[in-house]
Amino acid sequence: MQKENKQIERDLSGKTAVVTGASRGIGRAIACKLATEGASVVLNYKGSGERAEEVKARIEAEGGTAYLLPCDVADFAACEAFMKEAIGLLGRLDILVNNAGITRDGLLMRMSEEDYDAVLNTNLKGTFHCIRFAARQMIKQRSGRILNISSVSGVLGNAGQANYAASKAGVIGLTKSAAREFAGRGITVNAIAPGFIHTEMTKALPEKVRENAVAQIPLGRFGEAEEVAEAAAFLVSDRAGYMTGQVLHIDGGMAM
Ligand code: NAP
Fold it and tell me: What is the pTM of this model?
């Protein structure tokens, strides 16, 4: 019985994964969870090299395999080189988690073009870039799992987040289109739309905004990155083989 449980816990054994934005927060939790379940993981980040080193060390201390590869996902050409290097390190690519994301909040009437573009370029174009270059390999393999991180803001909209909500709604459209394009190639594409999760991204919110947010969450609290990682591990596993084009809401009930 115990042996069976162990097998279920490590159902990503032998799989290979790329997780973008894995130096902290949700990406870190997903990368660690995939590694715990047996996957070899490429940890992508943009600037937080030391933090990414810590994630790698943690995975290795638990007997897992991790590689560090910095890349700005907003850069099309850099993403092509990044994905090529990642596939070279891993040998094949079973799982891509598009998690890298930023916020530049502000009211629409005062939002600069730069803040709008920065958020769209990282969150939406970055997701497109990584899918674009990972899919080539997955199509060759005739199998793959792509998981994109959207947001409750992309589902419901959010005052002060026109750029972010637009990028995350875009990620949902991208997810569904890619799911349709790749379904015949054995590749599934799904999204998770987290609500308010305890990370540095939400720590940056003013106290008043966080209090108001909790009041809108039926479960009455922020979520933890590990709670998102649990669902991510399922969606990229063989157990989710008949799910594609779906958006899973992990938001304490906000978008029910
Ligand atoms: P976070 O703590 O701010 O971490 C963001 C991660 O993305 C970092 O690893 C960062 O790397 C990386 N990153 C940012 N820009 C990048 C770029 N251009 N290229 C490569 N990596 C980049 O954020 P989080 O809260 O964990 O959020 C993770 C994802 O979940 C994001 O897509 C976010 O929009 C989404 N989300 C979060 C929440 C929430 O409540 N926290 C809710 C809904 C959705 P560096 O450290 O190197 O910059």
Answer: 0.97
Whether ligand 1 lies within 6 angstroms of the CB of 149 is answered as yes
| 36-95 tens-digit pLDDT | 999 999 999 999 999 999 999 999 999 999 999 999 999 999 999 999 999 999 999 999
In order, the DSSP letters of 127-194 are HHHHHHHHHHHHHHHT-EEEEEE--HHHHH--TTBHHHHHHHHHHHHHHHHHHHHHGGGTEEEEEEEE
* Residue 64, both tokens: 């897992």
State the distance from the centre of ligand 1 to the C-alpha of 198, rounded, in angstroms.
12
124-151 tens-digit pLDDT: 999 999 999 999 999 999 999 999 999 9
Check pocket membership of 122 for ligand 1, CB cut-off 6 A. Answer: yes
For the Cβ of 199 lying below 6 angstroms from any atom of ligand 1, the answer is: yes
- Catalytic status, residue 164: yes
